Amino acid sequence: MYPTTRLRRLRNQPWLRDIVAENVITTDDLIWPCFITEGTNLLKAIPTLLDVYRYSIDQLLIKLEEAVELGIKAIAIFPSIDPKLKDEMGTEALNPDNLLSRAVKAIKNKYPELGIICDVALDPYTTHGHDGVLNDQELVDNDRTIEILTKQALNLVQAGCSMVAPSDMMDGRIGAIRHALDQQGFYDIPILAYAAKYASGLYASFRDAVGSSSTLQKKDKKHYQMNPANAREALREIELDIREGADIIMIKPGTLYLDIIARAFDNFNTPIFAYHVSSEYAMLKFAAANNALNYNKTLIETMICFKRAGCSGIISYAAIDVAKILKLGETL
């Protein structure tokens, strides 16, 4: 007890402060999400995502050299396809020579050790912008969608991706995809399940990036993504995905749902990833641009918060920025 016990003793000297830190962030924790587009020699800015671009495959290969040199070991790729290729069924998702499949093959050829995580969902491919196919009531048809998602997952694995990540929130899709992968002999391909994906207002910038904002328009995804008011329901979703064969579970968004990450960490032994989503990243960037915060310090603090809550991995548009900050030796 005070004055004998003074906890500030552990904080006064930087070296000791670092030694007793309960959580640290390293490049091993980071996954960089990137956007690809058709064409060559293209680097397209995304106005709602400062310093984030849509890359043609050749340009992404160049950018990945920097990422790999900084210690980034995995990426997540999202396509922005030609609107002419979109239809109500998301048919282009099953094309073995689609944009995403070609990107995976090119990356795997140049960077064979890099982990490539591919999204399994139909929103980049549908004319209506939803993650699945619609029924007569214009609601996503769960079971018909699963049939397509299973084929999409197989298509991506056959292209060479390292991990599939169903983000659609259909009931039962993890079990169906696991069964299909195993039947085809892909026993070692892990599944990252977007187990608790909330119907959040923080996806707007992402939808701009993949071109689903214009197709989705004023519609929402509340009939299949989770209600932000619910926490216990998230634990049910996570448990079901784990039982169906998920190797890792994802909580999305990340920053505003640290309580869900912490509950998942306390209740399950499965590794947990957080998605530091587009508008969470954008808020930091826009605030820093207007001198409302120090970007580097706040970014590292955000990453540490994910680790403190229980995350094994963090998907963030700022992953390369984090790696650069760590290389400079900056800490909290």
Features:
alpha/beta; 17% strand; ten-stranded mixed sheet; 332 residues; 39% helix
Describe it.
The chain contains twelve helices and ten strands. It is 39% helix and 17% strand. The model has no long low-confidence stretch (mean pLDDT 95). Strands 1, 2, 3, 4, 5, 6, 7, 8, 9 and 10 form a ten-stranded mixed sheet that branches. Helix 4 (142-159) links the parallel strand 5 (115-120) and strand 6. By secondary structure, it is an alpha/beta fold. The protein is globular, with a radius of gyration of 20 Å.
The shape is: globular
Q: Give, in order, the helices and strands.
A: HEEEHEHEHEHEHHHEHEHHEH
| Largest β-sheet summary | 10 strands, mixed
What is the total tally of β strands?
Answer: 10
Q: Please state the average pLDDT score.
A: 95
Low-confidence stretches: none
Oligomer: single chain
Q: Into which percentage range does the β-strand content fall?
A: 15-25%
| Helical proportion, percent range | 25-40%
Structural class: alpha/beta
- Cα gyration radius (Å): 20 Å
Distance between the termini: 27 Å
Number of helices: 12
What's this entry about, in short?
The protein has helices at residues 14-19, 57-69, 99-110, 142-159, 173-183, 204-210, 213-216, 232-244, 258-267, 278-289, 295-309, 319-328; strands at residues 30-37, 43-46, 49-56, 74-80, 115-120, 163-166, 192-197, 248-252, 272-276, 313-316. The chain is of the alpha/beta class and 332 residues long.
